[in-house]
Every structure is written in structure tokens, then in C-alpha cells.
Model the fold of this input.
Amino acid sequence: MSLTSLRRLSVLSLLAMVACPVEPEPVAVCDEAKENEGVPEVVAGAPQAGVAETFVDLPVGTPLSGYTSRCSCFGGDGKADRRDSQYKSKFAPSAGIQTRVPAKAFWISNGDQDLLILKLDVIYSFDGLVEALEASIEAQTGRPMDGRVVVATSHSHASYGDFSDQVTYYLGSDRFNAEVFERLVSTMTEVAVTAFDGLQPAKIGVGRAKDWDNGQVYHDRRGDNDGLQFFEDIPAGSYKDPYLTMIRIDTLDDQPLGVLFNFGMHGTTLDGDSPMISVDAPGHVELAFEETFDTPVVVAMLQSGAGDASPGGSDSFYATLETVGEYAKGPIRDLWAATKTAADPITLETASRSVPELHDDIRVTRNGTVDWYYPKYDADYTPDLKVYNDDGSLAAPMDEFNTEFGAAFCGENPAYLPGYAPAQVFPYDQCVDITKMMDLIAGFFDLSDEERALPLPEAQRAGVTASRFGPVPIHDETGADTVDDFLIGFFPGETTSIYTEQFRRRAADELGFEHSMAVGYAQDHEGYLLVPEDWLLGGYEADINVWGPLQGEHIMEGLLTMAQDHLLTPAVEKQDACSKYQIPDYGPDAAMPTVRPDLTPEAGTLVTADPAYLYSPLYSAGEYEAAAESGEIVVHLEVPSEVSRVSGLVQFAWAGGDPGVDFPLVTLQRKGEDGSFADVLSAAGRPVTQGPDILVTTTPDPLYPAEDEQNWTWYAAWQAVGHSDDRVGLPEGVYRLHVEGHTFVDDGATTWPWASAEYSVDSPEFTVVPAAITLAQSGSDLQASFQAPARGYRLVAMDGAVRGANPLPNDSATLTFTLADGSEVAVAGVGAHSGGITTFSAVIPEGATDVSVEDEYGNAGALALEAP
Done:
């Protein structure tokens, strides 16, 4: 064929292609109904449950979260000293442990479906962690876990957060640390598998109480909405979520197995200046409640309307944490006792999805009664600045939130960073556009262009979960008992009081669930969740989210829609049949840190000489500063041969391992008649370890840099106070503190997990003896008290003082008076206390010259009397 013929053929072919265009391949549209054809039906089965608990072993040095002031970009609050840590980026490193952080697992099954609730006492949840745990636990157990794993958290501001890779919240928890993340996955998988292995036939019930706290446990902190009457039957004014809800799990022979209880309270008793790891107030409620049983029971607090609720309590220092638990444990125990359980067959189903929440996704309809949304973003658009209609209703569309990628800090007045708001009307005029926010965050945390790319992954979707089980016995807030299904909604953020009540009402009205529970700080984190009317009032809570007034209820409607799609049908639909609700892509896996732990060949050696510097939270920053100038030693290591109850304090130190492998467990032990030592057990049969009984810190030498070889001195302090009930009645006898820890072994590994060897060390022995009762005379009245030590940190008595006077137990004692003729008169004294002092009124007989006082535990005091 000639070249001309080829050209002619090519032209003809081209013309043919133009005349007869090739039809494009049709875009495949996923049909959820078709994808769910043939899925199994919901099947009822007898309830089963398995519970387990352990401790998280994240290294001391890992920064604490919740207070932005801990970031060096805002002053670096919370520094114990000038120490460095390979586990921190821009936040102050932690320096010790007030309470160990537990990890708890509650596995509920009916033989067909599973629900696994994992509870962590950390700042918030992370959907990337949930996804990793689903895969890890499924691999270990063989059970399908997609959408069936819940990670609920306590929101302690004295715990960890840099396991989350949500860039927005680096300002609250420091930059993501891959090792911290992997350690958590390992620990949580282990405790979940233990719960799975322990599955047994169980009885389950639900209880609810209302107005159960008078403000001693928690209280409203959001005054900005006091003028808002959102519900017709709830008057305007101070309002906190009034409900206490409980899931009680028993064995078939009615022995307590596990308890999940739910109310809302921030974990903010400790301030941002504390470098001590702690479960804060929520965890101390768990610690107190678990001691109401006579055997170890796994209990966990799930947060409800905590976003605008602060912890209560009394006393000061760490004792305040214990008082919150003491105030709460009685009502929680009462509800537990009133809650019935049953082993009758139940149905169980759980659904999870990541709700799309970009600017154009967000809409609130309230079941068709409103239509609130943001118009499409337009950089040249001028909003109408009309927030409310003439009748006070919200004006729609909400064109004031004209921002492409979101905005934050919209609540506070004056604005944090003026000039970057989407509209000049309150509260939008306070906002800072995320594009500007990312300039700041990227600068603070040295982010790459890829890491700061918008939209941020966490701003694209919000993870939610809903679970339904029943019918089960339900004891409601009126005292009535019924049998019904129960719904739990798990929300990705700081659920506020009005928000949680709105969920309960919408779940009843739209889904038919008369009994439900909202759990916040679970699955993901989107900041504060408020209804639009509440958000528009501004205030701190409106500061911390990125999608404005509609974000909170948009997420709620996403959960309600999911529950309707999955939980109200007879089928067990696929979690995400068309892959529309996957968690966002957080990018490539971050590199694991490569700073290896220090070799510590002296680990397990008792420190006998006072170190030149040793960190302890029992001494103030001012004392350390003065000592640095004078060269004096602050902490004197002393283990007295006799330690008096209440006032006695033991402080000892040892050479330990690098925190990368060493998280020493310090346990109080008592010598038995055979001369051997055994762990001291609490009333619930738990060993007395650190938290809140024993404080532990570590001090590196040199303090910095972390990359240099360092020696690690660990320190423990114990005050002679009983764990819970018998605080001034610790049994007399010979005691010691026993330490079990680990030291690094170099096996050539360049990243975690690190090899280690065990070590142990014991404090010198000491004898606990009765406390001295301080007595004073006031006319014919006798005053008695226990004086807590100047370095005290434990709760001695309710209505007492951690470093002051404390009343006698039950305000009672035996009073023995010596009269002028040498005879004695014994009186069973019953007094009353005020200001930490028990007063026995008009009790001193005429002619008495001396008095001795002894309480029920053998604590005693004596006083020479004067004539009234």
C-alpha cells in the first residue's frame, strides 16, 4: 500500500471516529441494597461477657495533654525542670506518676454479634487508633471486628495524647509519636484478647438515676448559655447533664463482673503546671467505686455531657481528686444495687461510620423541621450578617461561615487573632480561618507541606458508632423497672449537656429508643460538640471545633441516620457496603523514633546518699529555685524506723532503668508472722500500688539532651494513710516498698520494642505505729484532730485538710479523764467536726486534771487540762 493510501485511510478512520464517537464506560454506581443482599439476619442469643484490665506502659517523659500552655510555643507550662525527653516534641515532658493509667476491656456478645468497649484514661480518642485496633484484634481473635470496636476515653488533662495524628489538636497534645501509638495498640490488643478469652455466660442490666449529685462531684462551667432555654421543659439557667447511667454485668450466679457507668465531668482538677501522669478526677471516681466491692471488679466511667462540666471535690492538692471519688461512690453504688440483670436472650448489633463533614457536606434538618446549611464557599462573597430572624430563630442559610477549610477559636472575645474571620458579626468575627491557623501550627511543629495540606484529614470525616442490645432489664430514673432495648451513641468529641439531652430526645422521637446513652470522647475527636443555638452564644467551648455552629448536630444526625439504616432493620448489614464512610487518609506511616534507651547496669541498686537534685512533686518550684542558688539539697531520702499513721512519710530512691523500658511497679508490702513479705491488699482485694497511694518520679542525669547517655534515679513517696476506707487505721506492723522494674538490654534493635531484663529492689523496712491525736481545750470542750504532714498529699478525712487538721473517724473516741483524786472516768465521746477538728462539747468534768483520747484504731493523744 502506498504512503498516500495510508494517509487517506488515516483520514477516513479519523472521520469515522468523529462521526461515530466511542461511548465512555459508564460510571459504576454502588447499590447498597444490592451489596447487602444475602447478609445474615439479626439473631438473638444468650448474653456473654468478658472483662479485663491492665496498665498502659507509656514512658515517663511522654508529654501530658489537654492544656495548650504546656507547649513551648505558649510558655512550656508543666516543666518539672530543664529535662529533655525523646518522647516529646514541643510539649513539656512528664516527670512522674500520681496514678498509673489503666486500659480496660468490656467484651459483650450474644454468640452472634460482638461489641468491644475499650476504655483509656487519656485525653481523647483517635479514629486511626480505632482502625488499627480493629485489624489487630480481629487478627488475634478471628472475630470480625470492623465497626465493632469502641475506644472511649476519660479526657484526663494529666494523661497522654500524642498517639493521635490529628494536626489540628497538636496544640493540645504535641506532635504525633509513632512509638507511643504502637505501644497503645499493643497494650489495648492484649487487654482485648484477655477479655475475649474470658467470655462467659452473663447477666446484663441497665440503670439510670437523675439529679444524683448536688454539685460535690461535678458542676456546670458554661455560663455563656445560662440565658438559653433550649427545651420547653428545662428552664434557662445553669444546667448540667443530670443523668447517671449504668450497664451492670454479672456472672450467672450474680457475682459482679464489670460495671460501665456514664456521666459527664471534665478531667481538669490538676492544672497545666503539673508534670505528673494522672487519671485525674474521672479515674479517681473509678478508683473509689471499685473499692465498694469486696473482690476486684472491672469498672469504667464513660463520659457523657462533660464538655461543659467541671469536677467538684474539696480539700487541695492530690487529695481533691480522692474527694471527688468519695462523693461519687455512694450514689453510683446505690444505682448498681437497684439495677437488675438477666440472662435472657438478647439481640446485639453495632454500626460505625465516618460521617462526611466538609463545608458542603454539613447540614442540619432536625428530622425535616429545619434546613440549616452553609452556602458554597465563595472567596468574594459578602455575608448578610443576619444570624437570627426577627422571631429569634436561626437565620438560614448560615452564610457567615464562609470558609473553605473551616475556622477555629470562634467563641472568645476579644479574638485570639483578629483579621482572619469569615464575617464581622458575633461570634463569627472571633474566628480564625484554618488556613491561617495552619501557618501557626506548621511553624510551631515544623510541619512539611504534605503534613499541612488542606483540607486536613481530621476535618473531612467524623467517626461515630451506635450499638443496640436488648431486651434487658432497665431501672429508670423514676424508680420503675421495665424490660426494653438500649441504645448507645458514641460521639467523637466533647459532648455538652444540652447536646446529650438533644440526642436522648431525638433517639426516642426518631428511632423509638426510650432508653439511650450518649458517650463522648470516643472513636475520634472533633472538639466541642454543641447544638447550633448554643454554639452561637460563643464562649470557650465554641472555640474548639473547625466547622462552626452546625458541626455538632450534623454529626449527631449522621449517627442517627446510621442507626436507622443499620439498627432498625432485621438484617446485619455490611458496615460500609459502598465505601462511602471510611476514615480519612492520614498519609504515610510516620517513622518510629530511633533514640535507644540508655544502658543502666546499676539498675536495682538502692540510693543511700541524698542526690544533689531529685524531682518530687511534694516540693515547690520556689524551694528548688532557692536550693539551686544556695546549693542545699531539697529531697532528703529518709525511711524512719517508725512511721506514724497519717503524719509519717517514707521517701526512698533507687537506680533504675531508662523510661523507654522501665515503668517500675511499686507495691506496699507487710511482713507476716513467718517473716516473709506479702502485698498489702485493699478492701477490694487489689494490691496497693502507686496511685493514689504511692507517688513515683524519675530524674535523668544529665537532664538534657535526651540523646546523651543518662543515668536514671527513680523515687517513691508513701504517706502512712490507708488506701480507702480505713485511712487513719492502717494495720500496725513492719512494712516495706517493693519495686519491680526493667533495664535495657542491647540486642541490636533500632526501634521499639526494646529488649529488657527484670530487676527488683526494696526500701528499708519500717514499722507503722498509731497516729498521735492532737488535743486542745476550750473551756469545758475538748478538741481533737489528726495533723497531716507538711509534705502530705493523701486524703486523710472528708472535711479535713491534706496538710492541716483532720477530724477523728466518725467523730468518736474513748475519752479517759483523770480527776484530782487520781480516779479515772471513761466516756464514749461523740462529737461534731468543723474546720477539720472534732469537738466534744461540754465533756470535761469538773476537777479533771488530764485526759487521754483513743479512737477505734488505737490512735491516741493526751493533754494536761486547766480548770475551766
The two ends are 136 Å apart (CA to CA). Confidence is low (pLDDT under 50) at residues 1-20.
